[in-house]
Specification:
528 residues, 4 domains, 5-stranded parallel β-sheet, 3-stranded antiparallel β-sheet, 25 helices
Length: 528
C-alpha cells in the first residue's frame, strides 16, 4: 500500500467514512473504493497495512492532526519503524528515530515554527493505533493479552486534575511577569527548583494551572480538604503520568529520583521536563527530617520542579538540595507590587467589559451610583490588596445584588475583612444562625469531604434543612462525588483559616466544643 497516496485523499476518505457510519449498505460503490485502502467500514481491518491506514484516518478525524505530522506518518520508513518499535514496546526509541528522519529531510525547523510537539503527536497516534489494533481482536484476546493495552489513551492532563485546571483558568488574566521569570530560570539553568510564594488568594494555584494548561507538563495539586496531600499519593500520581508520557519501562515501583533519571535519559535535546506541584504548605507527612513529598535533593539534567506554597519560616522550608539551583518569586514582594496591581485591575476590567456572568450587573451597579468605571476599578483594586480570591467573591456578590446597600467606600479591605463582613451580613453571630454556624464548624473539624446525610445525623437536624444551609454557602464550599455520594468540604484554605480563627474567640469557642462533642457522639453511635 502506498501511504502517501492515502494521505492525499484523507479529507475525502474521512468525509466518506462519516457518511457511511450509519448507512453503509446504501453506498456499495463507495465501500469498494475504500476497500482498496483496507478501509472497509463494514468490518475490522485484517492486515497490518490496513490497521495502519485506519489509524492514520482516525488520528486525522479525532485530533485534526497538522499536515506536517500526517505527511510524516505517510512515509514508508516511518510506518515500518513505528510498527516495529510499537510491537517492541519501545516508542521512546521511535521518537528519536522520527526526529532523525525529520532532520534528514530538513523539516525540523518547520516543526518548531508550527509549534508541533512531536512527542505529544506520537502519543496521540499511538493511542489511536492501540484502539484500532484492539478492534481486530476478540474481547477474549484483548483481555488475555496485557500488552494489547500497553499504550494508554492520550490525555495531556491527568484526569484527576483536569476539571480543577479548567476551572482555575476559566477567567485567567495576566501574570506574564511570573511566567517570564520561570522561563528565564529554565533557560539559565540545566535543572532546578523554582518556587512561587504568596498569601492565600494571591493566585498561586491559578498560575500553576495556567502553566500546566499551556505546556501540558505533569502536575500534582495538594488538596488538604480532599485528603489528597500525602507523599505516597503524590508519587503514585506522578509515576503514572511519567510512565504514560515518556513510555518508561519497568518503572511501576520506581521512586521519584529513579523516575526522573529515566525521563532525563529519554528526553530529546530540545526537551525539558517540568513537574508542577501546587500547595506544598498543605502536605501532611510524618517524616519531618525529609523534604516535603520526599522531593529529591538532586535533579538530573533538563529536569525542573515548579512549586507553589504559602509564606514560611526558614525551619519550615523542608526543601534540602545539593548543588541544585533554586529560585523563589514572592508575590508579596514590593518588586512585583505594581505588576500585580496591574493584573488585578485588568481582571476587574474583564469582569466589567467581557465576562458574561458579571458585566451587565456590574455596569448597572456603577451607573446607578454615578461612579466612573475607572474610579470603581481603582478603588476595588486598592481594597483587594492584590488578592484575586477577594475579587473572586466580591465581584459576583456585587453582580448578584449583595452589596446594593453599601457604598464603594464601605467595601471591606482585604480578604479576611471580606470574610468577616460577609459573616456579619449573613447574621452568623446571632442566635438564630447558630445551627448554620455549627454545620460550617463540622466541615472545619472533620476536614475531609462528608455527605449532607452525615452532617444531618451529627447535628440531629433534618437533611433537607442541612441542604438549605449548604446552598446558602455554596460559593465557599466544594462538592464532589465520593462512592457515588455528593460530599462537601471548604473550597479554599483562606476561608478555612478564617473559620479556624473563630476558635480563638470566646463567643464561638463553646460552639467548637459542642461540635466536637456531637462528632464524637456520632461516631460512637455508628460503631455501636
Amino acid at each position: 500500500m502506498i501511504f502517501t497516496e492515502l494521505i492525499g485523499q484523507l479529507p475525502k476518505i474521512a468525509d466518506a467514512l462519516g457518511q457511511l457510519r450509519t448507512q453503509a449498505q446504501n453506498y456499495p460503490n463507495l465501500i469498494k473504493e475504500l476497500q482498496k485502502w483496507g478501509l472497509d467500514p463494514t468490518q475490522p481491518p485484517e492486515n497490518p497495512d490496513a490497521i495502519y491506514a485506519w489509524s492514520i484516518v482516525k488520528y486525522y478525524q479525532e485530533f485534526q492532526g497538522m499536515q506536517l505530522m500526517i505527511d510524516l506518518l505517510g512515509e514508508d520508513e516511518i510506518k515500518k519503524t513505528f510498527v516495529e518499535k510499537y510491537n517492541a514496546n519501545d516508542l521512546a526509541k521511535f521518537l528519536k528515530l522520527a526526529k532523525d528522519f525529520i532532520i534528514r529531510r530538513g523539516l525540523w525547523r518547520e516543526f518548531g515554527e508550527k509549534k508541533l510537539d512531536l512527542r505529544a503527536e506520537i502519543q496521540k497516534f499511538s493511542s489511536v493505533y492501540t484502539q484500532v489494533t484492539k478492534w481486530t481482536k476478540s474481547p477474549l484476546q484483548v483481555l488475555s493479552e496485557p500488552d494489547s493495552s500497553k499504550i494508554s489513551e492520550y490525555s495531556p492532563y491527568p484526569k484527576e486534575f483536569k476539571a480543577l485546571i479548567q476551572n482555575k483558568i476559566e477567567s485567567f488574566r495576566g501574570r506574564e511577569f511570573v511566567f517570564d521569570k520561570i522561563q528565564q530560570f529554565i533557560s539559565r539553568n540545566s535543572n532546578g527548583y523554582f518556587t512561587i510564594v504568596g498569601d492565600a488568594g494571591m493566585g498561586k494555584s491559578t498560575i500553576a494551572a495556567k502553566f500546566i494548561w499551556d505546556h501540558k507538563f505533569p502536575c500534582y495539586f495538594n488538596i488538604r480538604s480532599e485528603g489528597r496531600n500525602r507523599p505516597e499519593l503524590f508519587l503514585e500520581s506522578i509515576r503514572q503520568q511519567l510512565i504514560n508520557r515518556y513510555w518508561l519501562q519497568n518503572a511501576k515501583d520506581d521512586n521519584l529520583q529513579t523516575l526522573l533519571q529515566k525521563v532525563s535519559d529519554n528526553l530529546l535535546d530540545d526537551e525539558r521536563l517540568v513537574i508542577v506541584v501546587d500547595a506544598l504548605d498543605e502536605v501532611e507527612q510524618e517524616d519531618r527530617d525529609k523534604n516535603l513529598l520526599n522531593l529529591p535533593t538532586t535533579l538530573p539534567n533538563k529536569v525542573y520542579l515548579l512549586l507553589t506554597r504559602r509564606p514560611y519560616v526558614a525551619d519550615k522550608k523542608r526543601l534540602y538540595t545539593q548543588g541544585v539551583p533554586e529560585e523563589e518569586l514572592d508575590l508579596r514582594s514590593p518588586e512585583y507590587g505594581d505588576l500585580s496591581r496591574q493584573d488585578i485591575e485588568n481582571y476587574i476590567w474583564f469582569c466589567i467589559q467581557e465576562n458574561p456572568k458579571t458585566k451587565d450587573s456590574l455596569r448597572k451597579w456603577i451607573a446607578e451610583r454615578q461612579i466612573a468605571a475607572f474610579t470603581f476599578v481603582e478603588q476595588v483594586a486598592h481594597k483587594s490588596e492584590n488578592n484575586f480570591m477577594y475579587l473572586y467573591h466580591l465581584l459576583p456578590g456585587i453582580a448578584q445584588g449583595d452589596y446594593n446597600d453599601l457604598s464603594l467606600e464601605k467595601f471591606p479591605k482585604g480578604l479576611q475583612e471580606y470574610y468577616q463582613t460577609h459573616w456579619r451580613r449573613m447574621g452568623m453571630d446571632t442566635e438564630p444562625k447558630e445551627k448554620m454556624v455549627i454545620i460550617l464548624f463540622i466541615l472545619v473539624e472533620i476536614s475531609t469531604p462528608i455527605p449532607c446525610e452525615m452532617m444531618a445525623k451529627i447535628t440531629n437536624q433534618d437533611e433537607y434543612e442541612v441542604g438549605k444551609v449548604l446552598e446558602q454557602w455554596v460559593e465557599y464550599l466544594k462538592d464532589q462525588k465520593v462512592d457515588q455520594e455528593t460530599c462537601y468540604s471548604i473550597y479554599h484554605t483562606s476561608f478555612l483559616d478564617f473559620l479556624k480563627g473563630k476558635q480563638d474567640l470566646k463567643k464561638t469557642r463553646k460552639l467548637f466544643d459542642e461540635v466536637n462533642q456531637k462528632i464524637a457522639e456520632y461516631f460512637i453511635r455508628e460503631m455501636a
